[in-house]
């Protein structure tokens, strides 16, 4: 019997968060044919609060990687909602933004935590093209925001 993405997620010690209502004027995803554009996800905790801090000043790489992993879980939750099942999800592109000091240059290492979790859960369907960039600030002073483009398989 083949292990499902949800079983792999559970084996890794994770569960998907609920997809929350957007706080502003946008939708969690927008589907066009077999492609869905997922809105940027921030490291929101189960109680609704967010992880905060500027990477390179108020937090280090490992804390930022944990925040990026939490963003990945939120992306997976939105992707499941868009596709109906994680078995129908293929990640095409990830765009990771890191709220960092001007001197910080390890954005790829931070966003790798998201990329690695997507690949661990979805296998080949989790591998994607990617950008990892530094930003002077992000909403609510979150350390990371990540958006994605997925393909929904038949």
TrEMBL record:
Residues 6-139 form the Endoribonuclease L-PSP/chorismate mutase-like domain. InterPro entries: Endoribo_LPSP/chorism_mut-like (IPR013813), RutC-like_sf (IPR035959). This is Endoribonuclease L-PSP/chorismate mutase-like domain-containing protein. It comes from Teichococcus aestuarii.
